[in-house]
From TrEMBL:
Signal peptide limits: none
A Pfam entry, by short name: Acetyltransf_1
Entry keywords, A to Z: Transferase
Membrane-spanning residues: none
Organism: Kribbella capetownensis
Xref: SUPFAM superfamilies: Acyl-CoA N-acyltransferases (Nat)
Record's protein name: GNAT family N-acetyltransferase
């Protein structure tokens, strides 16, 4: 769990961060294999085909801060029950304090905390090692290589490999609002990151590096590459939600914290599937 951060920036930066989260939740709900996504009472709700408890797999997000917190909690509970899924509720500290109190009073448990971080100027172009090839994901074969990196990371961490299909399917990676990059070491997929565009804002998600190729700066390489592509495509702000592992790397690239996101878990009544995992899973595996 990441420590609390001292945020910088103003309301416009926090609004950009919230838009990135909303866009990502909706994107994975739309393109994830077997996923279901809906909006109820200004709440965005997603159920994936597995009961993996991840930040973007089985999710509830209050889209409007004016929506009553009790209504959000009720909608999340009903949606999770209807789809037989645990639900992870996103709470932004700059706007959702009432929702945090309501969630805790209603049986949700705080499971993970992530600083929202932002970049407003392009980082320097990274140096690419001689044995590394850096490419943009352009077709199904590239998307399968991207997914292979994450499956290796998931399996190494004891997580279900099939949960990768929610965010790394060909449809999710080749969507028109997505830019994804892949680094190969001597021809073998080794590291990757994806970028979801939304007008002047872009969000970086699912940065990963295989265990065998860590400690070479590949996570920094792919993150810097997609950030530069975001600005080349007109983004004014690039955001991400950092894990404890990733935050120092992002800080070195130039990202600064602007808020903190909490994720609260509402378990389903009976969790019989072996696919159940904690919401503290990493959405990046850098090193």
């Amino acid at each position: 769990m990441c420590a609390a951060v001292d945020p910088v920036g103003g309301d416009d930066l926090r609004a950009a961060g919230d838009l990135s989260v909303e866009t990502a939740v909706e994107h994975f709900g739309r393109y994830g294999e077997g996923a279901v996504a809906t909006r109820r009472a200004d709440t965005l709700l997603v159920a994936s085909r597995t009961d993996f408890v991840g930040a973007f797999h089985n999710t509830a997000l209050r889209v409007s801060p004016d929506t009553a917190p009790g209504r959000v909690v009720d909608e999340a509970r009903a949606f999770g029950g209807a789809h037989d899924r645990p639900i992870v509720l996103w709470v932004a500290t700059h706007r959702d304090q009432d929702l945090a109190k309501e969630a805790q009073a209603s049986g949700f448990e705080l499971r993970s905390t992530a600083p929202g971080m932002a970049l407003r100027t392009p980082p320097p172009e990274p140096a690419v090692p001689a044995d590394v090839e850096l490419i943009r994901v352009a077709d199904r074969a590239d998307s399968e290589a991207f997914a292979a990196v994450h499956r290796e990371v998931f399996v190494n961490a004891g997580r279900p490999a099939e949960a990768v299909d929610h965010f790394a399917s060909p449809d999710a990676l080749l969507a028109p609002n997505v830019t994804a990059v892949l680094a190969r070491v001597n021809g073998t997929p080794a590291s990757c990151a994806m970028l979801i565009h939304n007008g002047p804002t872009a969000g970086i998600y699912w940065v990963a590096t295989t265990p065998a190729t860590r400690n070479r700066g590949l996570g920094t390489l792919v993150t810097t590459a997609v950030a530069r592509l975001a600005f080349e495509h007109g983004a004014q702000t690039v955001t991400l939600q950092a894990t404890e592992l990733g935050a120092p790397v992002y800080h070195r690239i130039g990202f600064t914290p602007f808020t903190t996101y909490h994720r609260f878990l509402l378990p389903r009544p009976r969790l019989s599937s072996p696919q159940r995992r904690d919401a503290t899973e990493e959405t990046d595996a850098l090193q």
